[in-house]
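thoughts on these tokens:
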Amino acid sequence: MKLSFFSVSSLSAMAALLRLVSLLLLFLPAGAIWAQQPADQTAAAEQAPVAVGVHAVPPFVMKDRDGSWYGLGVDMMNALGRSLDIDYRFVETDPADMVARVEDGTLGAAIGPVPINARDEAVIDFSQPYYSGSVGVAVRLVDRLGPRFMLELLTSPAFLYMLGLLTGPVFIIGALIWLLERRANPEQFEPRPARGVFSGFWWATVTMTTVGYGDKAPVTFLGRLLAMFWMFAALILAAITTAQLAAGLTSSINTSAMETVGDLGGLDVGTVAGSSASAELDILHIDARDFADVNAGLDALARDEIDAFVYDRAALQWGLRNYSGLYLAGLSFSQQNYGLILPQNDPKRDAINIAILSTLASEQWHLIVDRYLPSDGR
């Protein structure tokens, strides 16, 4: 009897143990799956392309016809992607929302018309600046080329110097040709000094300007030799003088029309609404008319609706390529530094800053800047 009872109890205990082991085996894979899901999600998040917010603001960010993005800021992001092996994608974003979307994590970074400033730095981090510029002023060329400007130009030391550079050789060559031709060619170069020297000046002037009326011409060997020398020398002299006068005219336009911020006072000024340039004008107590973008402001300037348009100098330099009657004044103020917008305490920030500094030091970056902003080495 004892043996029989022991056998039944042992069998029951073994059956219960088997059921427990079966339940454990059933739930273990499920637990492993649930434990693996967060890790898989984390790995997937790390491998997903970083969303980089962009907004079209030439020359920093521009959109091509095929939907691709290019520009100074985009080229910097491309350089960072290659240097740090970052996978990213561009997401068109309203500039007013860029900082907020980077702050809440919707965007991993952003490139836009937001210069480095203390207010936004409180909620996000800016990278090292990839471009340093300033606020510039666009004005109409016709407003500058008035009677007063022409009088100033004609009486400027540079113009008088170039005039002397032209007339001096004319007097010398004119006197020499008279000395050589007065005896053999008295009909064209009169023997009397006053009339003969004047005829020599006349001949030297028309020869230098390549007019060559043909009313006077040397007939002696030495006279013709001097004439040949003067023809070649006059071509070089005229080319040098023309280049110097053009450079002086351009310099006078750029430096004299708008020399200080005070020159904006009393003018009808325009700017882009909500921009850093608009904030600077408010600080300076200069009333400005708001426009939606750079092109709208430049169109108004070309139509004579405003007297000056104030905005980021690099953006104006790019936009003015399509306006022959407008130019960028020499006045610039309020330095503007542009960097990437990053989340606060981003662990990649140090690596990004080092990569930016390395890119800025490269010859390739100088070529990129020259592509978008010729003659601007910043």
